[in-house]
Write a structure and sequence with these properties.
By secondary structure, the protein is of the alpha/beta class. The protein is 43% helix and 19% strand. Helix 1 crosses helix 7. The structure holds guanosine-5'-diphosphate and adenosine-5'-diphosphate. The site of guanosine-5'-diphosphate has 16 residues, from strand 5, strand 6 and helix 4. It catalyses: GMP + ATP = GDP + ADP.
Length: 212
């Protein structure tokens, strides 16, 4: 079966949630199962966790370098979260969008607000809720990569992150990973078909009208 390709601009799929609700898990699955999607790798001054790889999970940089990158205009947005800097490198995102590839972001509400201002309709914002605060704490503990004190701090920030749910286009509860994944795929499919993203439509329809 031949599939007609219509040129379109890529979209920016933003996932936000309180820490531990499942963004990383869902992002990895979605990236593995969707060829048209690539991850925006953020720069951070946070120390790598066991198993994290520089350049795949984050670009791990020190604070002087991060501040230098801010000065160079290298970030689409940046924020300080849990005492560390996080930022979205600009050039990667812009080149991917222009060739019609979609970019996935795992960023907090501050970053989402800044991206929305800078990038407007390119943004598709998804907020992921935990089933309960008890389950959120359980997931953070089970991840077992952060100390008890860090888990405590993330839980105390959860209410702050949660309070921004209404600034997002799509919101759902991450009970079951498979169900959540299906929801993300549905969102992505519908958003890809939005007319305004498909700049190749004018030419395609003109072609049709010419009898091709
Ligand atoms: N603004 C902004 N936030 C980011 C960026 N990258 C990650 N974050 C957020 O920083 C917070 C902490 O991330 P991390 O230390 O990896 O812990 P996580 O909560 O387990 O993902 C999360 O809320 C992320 O969404 C970024 O480039 N910009
Ligand atoms: N739907 C789910 N049901 C049960 N556990 C989950 C679910 N989604 C994620 N988890 C687990 O919860 C923990 C936190 O998930 P993670 O993806 O690291 O969250 P975040 O990136 O939002 O901080 C991980 O141990 C992960 O395996």
């Amino acid at each position: 079966m031949h599939f007609t390709t219509i040129a379109r601009r890529g979209l920016m799929l933003v996932l936000s949630s309180p820490s531990g609700a499942g963004k990383t898990t869902l992002s990895r699955r979605l990236l593995a199962e969707d060829e048209g999607l690539v991850m925006s790798v953020s720069a951070t001054t946070r120390k790598p966790r066991p198993g994290e790889i520089d350049g795949r999970d984050y670009l791990f940089v020190d604070e002087p370098r991060f501040v230098q990158m801010i000065g160079e205009g290298a970030f689409l947005e940046h924020a300080k979260v849990f005492g560390n800097y996080y930022g979205t490198p600009r050039s990667f995102v812009e080149s991917e969008l222009s060739i019609g590839r979609d970019v996935l972001f795992d960023i907090d509400w501050q970053g989402t607000q800044q991206l929305a201002q800078a990038m407007g309709e390119d943004l598709v914002r998804v907020f992921i809720l935990p089933p309960s605060m008890q389950e959120l704490a359980e997931r953070l503990r089970k991840r077992a990569q952060d100390s008890a004190a860090v888990v405590q701090m993330r839980m105390s920030k959860a209410a702050d992150e949660l309070s921004h749910w209404a600034e997002y286009d799509y919101v759902f509860v991450n009970d079951d990973v498979e169900v959540s994944l299906a929801r993300l795929k549905a969102i992505l499919l519908a958003e890809r078909l939005k007319r305004f993203r498909q700049h190749g439509l004018t030419q395609f329809v003109r072609h049709l009208l010419e009898g091709h």
